[in-house]
Every structure is written in structure tokens, then in C-alpha cells.
Amino acid sequence: MIWHPFTRQLGEGEPLKIVRGQGEYLYDATGKKLIDAIASWWTVIHGHNHPHIVEAIRRQLETLDHVMLAGFTHENAEVVAYKLLAISDKIFERVFFSDNGSTAVEVMLKLALQYWHNLAQPQKQEIIHFSSAYHGDTVGAMSVAGSSLFNAPFSSLLFHSPCFKYPCKEDDPSLEELERYLKMHSNETAAIIVEPLIAAVSGMQFQESDALKRIEDLARRFDVLLLFDEVFTGMGRVGSGNYFAYQKSATKPDIIAVAKGLTGGALPLAATLVNEKVYREFLSDEPLRAFYHGHTMTGNPLGCAAAVASLELFEKEDRLKGVMDLETHMRALWNSIAIRHGDKISAPRSMGAVSAADVNPRSEKSGYTFSASLHFREMARKQGVILRPLGNVLYVTPPYNISKEALEAVFDVLDELLTNYAD
Ligand SMILES: Cc1ncc(COP(=O)(O)O)c(C=O)c1O
User: Fold this and answer.
1) Are residues 137 and 243 in the same domain?
2) Which of 143, 178, 193, 383 has its CA 20 to 30 A from that of 210?
């Protein structure tokens, strides 16, 4: 009946029916408990069914289910916007709501183009992206992604977007190439879009802050907008006491896209945050300068209630500090695995609530088609842990407040998977 996302229609086995969630655990129909080590596609940052979020949604449902956001406003949308601007060091001016990471990215791309249009520079139309990028599954988001098996069938739909290798280090030659390109083409370039500090879907590639700073510097020198896709990295994910990767790297993007952990995973909601420089060009009563974009459920009161509660939990439960402790713990756990399985994995790495390592492929191909990936997923599930390797990259992105005991159980399973790998 159901066509499951990102799933081959044959050969991946039956989907597991989940009936309940609590904290870091999901329970299947037989009552078996599984540790959600990837926080349900990186959303459930405070654990499943956190009582504070559940209660906020319940209370909201008693008073207002939905109202459209064109021509109307409501308390929860205002509080979410206020809180997002407050945790962003006040570098942004406005919050545009939508429903998921892809739409938040589409909004970001469209705002960037219309910014130049409103400034009477419509020739600035190109968006530069990086090779390993993933920004979502809508057509605009796919156009600014690295080419992959995800977007290959749709190449005729995608708009032209110059691509440079994702620079992980400050001295990456791709930054020189980008500079050379901008010297020639800044007049046609509207913006640069980047996944700051971590390129997630392409295999949890970590980027040094200095590389991101050089991208920022180029954007400023050549007068192009800087767009950060913080769908994965935002809401405390990157650690060191920061809500966003731009804070951790001391950079200042013009627009950011936020989703995933925004509601603590309870309901779909996304936001695109825009600075004053960009917003100013829309501040007009001329019909042609308005931004004609909006999804039906934009700013839904229930989603906003969940987001308010999720943002409150960062304060109430000192979540950013929790992410720092989690990072320390995960780094130590990977290190001990690396000592035992140094021949089978490389580049164990941890940043905030993200921990990953590359499995050294034997005879198989690495990348998304790495054949052991499905096997790892199934073996982990049998042992009560939900993992979803990205090709040959094993990673853990648990709820930020996962218990020590559950986290250690996850790494025990990783240890066992590696012990049995290619033996
Ligand atoms: C960096 C990044 N941007 C955008 C998206 C798309 O978000 P969504 O799946 O909510 O559309 C994702 C999803 O994984 C992501 O990791």
C-alpha cells in the first residue's frame, strides 16, 4: 500500500511497524525495544514523545488547530520567530515559515534570486554549490546538489548551477578555483549555498571553520549572497555550545534554512531566516517586490507549539551542554572501536551530536551503493539498534539526551558489526 521513501521496491525487506516511542527508544508491534541511534532522520533531538512537547501540542489543539499565515498571525508563530531570532545572535531580521528542509531551502534560493531582481540586477541568477551537497528532494534543492543516483533521472529538470568540490580545509584547491570563477562571473552570480561544517548525506564529511570562513570572505568580496543550509547542522547539532554551525565557525550568512530538530521531531515545520540586508529589498508596498511564496500549512499552530516547547527544552534541560558531553563520550567510544578495528575503519570523527567513521571497503564499491550497508542496517536492527549507514559511512546521531547506557549499547553493536564484517 505504502510507497516508502528512499527505499528500493524490492530487496530491502519488510518495513518494521513501530507502535510507540519514548525517549531514545522505539517499540515495535511485538513490544521489542529499539534504540533510535539516528533520532529518526535527525529530528528527535530531545527523544521521542518528550512530555513537554506532547503537552504543548495537546494544549494548542484545544484552542486552535490551524489558521493560514497570509493576513493572519498567532501567538505560537510569533514566539517561535522571536526565539529563533534571539538564539541567532540577532543577525537575522525575519523568519519565513514552511514545512520541511527542502521547502526551507527552496525559499532560501528564491529569496536570493528575488533579492537581486528587486535590486534591479536580474542578471545575477546563478547559485554556486558544492560537489557533495544534499539540500533536499524538490527540484530547486536537487539543482544545487552534487550529482548522484538521487537526482540522475531528473537532470533535464535541473537548473544550471556551477559546482565546486566541497572544501573541507582552508587550503583546499577548490577554494582557489571558486575565487578564479568569481573573478570572471560575479556579475552573474546570485549566491553560494553550502552545508556549513558538515556535509551530512554525502557521508558526514566534516569541514574546518577556516574553509567556511574563506567561502564567506569570497562571498563578501565578490558581492554574492551566502546561504547556509542548517537543516542538519542547526538546532544544537554541531556542539561547542552553539545552536548553529555559523555561530560555531564565527561566520555570518545572509540566509539560513532550519528544519529537522526545530520541533524536536514531533511535527513538520521549517524556517528560513533572513538578514536585514536581504529583507530591506522586500520592504515595499510595490506588488512586484513582494515574495509570492507560501505553503498551505505554513506556520501551523501545532507545529509552532511543538517548536516553542522544543526551544524551551534547550533552556530547561541545558541541552547545549548535553551535546558537548555527548560529543566527548562518542569520541571516546569511537576511539576504543578504532583501536580494535583499525584495519576495518578509517577517519573516526565526532562533532557535537554527530559521530561517524568510514568502513574500509573490501572488494565492494564505496559510496551509496556500498553493499554491506543494508546488511549493517539489518544486523543492527536485529540487535535492537536503529542505524542507517550512508553507503560505507557508519554514523550515530542520537537524541541529544540519550542515556549513557543506551549510547554504550549502540557502540557495542557497532563493535560487533565490525567484528563480523568480512570475517
Ligand atoms: C542538509 C539538508 N538539507 C535539506 C534536507 C531536506 O530536508 P527534508 O527531508 O526535511 O526535506 C536534508 C535532509 O536530510 C538535509 O540533510
Assistant:
1) yes
2) 143
